[in-house]
Amino acid sequence: MRYVLLFLCCCLLSSAGAQIHQAGQRFIEVGGGLTNRMQLIKPANSGYRLKASLGKYGKKEGSYQLDLITQKKYYQPNEKLTAVNQYFLGGTFSPKAFSTTDRQFYIHPALGILIGYEATRSEEAFSSDTVAVNPNKFLVGVSGGLNGEWNMTSQMAFLVFARVNYLPSSAIEHFHFHYGIGIRFNYFKN
């Protein structure tokens, strides 16, 4: 635990260099977060998500990303709690909205497209006497939200995000609010 605190203190005291958000600079990003609620212990309508991305900065400090996302949510359509897994391939564009003069902190809006699949483990959990719902669905939707980026060094940034997904083809829920944290590693590729 001491080493983690020491690492965080070093990151807090470091300042980012000039090689941030250069056109053509690429990055790898990983992150995780919660969906709809602040709890992880399987209450109804809660869940978590994990994300891995590859991206590239454009000419005006915006970024383009290709995302792989997995999300697990818990629903209670009847008396039984059911887990629903969602898997997405996404494309995200984040233009620059605000940055400090030293280019250490950025705020970006994020707009994206999602294509994915939704699967449950129990088919009888989503069927009733009157309506039978297919629990496995192909998903297409859009995503929007805000990202906060704090550049700890010229190669590493800490991220905070909040987004809403709109998935009209979902059998479970059309809107998903999620928030979380991540880390971005910048590198140049010629």
Task: Give structural notes.
The protein is mainly beta and 190 residues long. Helices cover 6% and strands 55% of the residues. It has an eight-stranded antiparallel beta barrel with strand order 1-2-3-4-6-7-8-9. A hairpin with a 4-residue loop joins strand 7 (137-151) and strand 8. It is elongated, with a radius of gyration of 19 Å. InterPro entries: Conjug_transposon_Tra0. This is Conjugal transfer protein TraO. Keywords: Signal.
- Which overall shape is indicated by the principal axes computed on the Cα atoms? elongated
Number of strands: 9
Low-confidence stretches: 125-134
- Biggest sheet layout: 8 strands, antiparallel, barrel
As a percent range, the share of helical residues equals: under 10%
Radius of gyration using CA atoms only: 19 Å
Report how far the terminal alpha carbons are from each other: 39 Å
Question: How many helical stretches?
Answer: 1
Strand order of the largest sheet: 1-2-3-4-6-7-8-9
Q: How much beta, percentage-wise?
A: over 45%
Query: SS-based structural class?
Result: mainly beta
**Topology pattern, helix = H, strand = E:** HEEEEEEEEE
Mean pLDDT rating: 83
What's the gist of this structure?
Pfam families: TraO. This protein is mainly β.
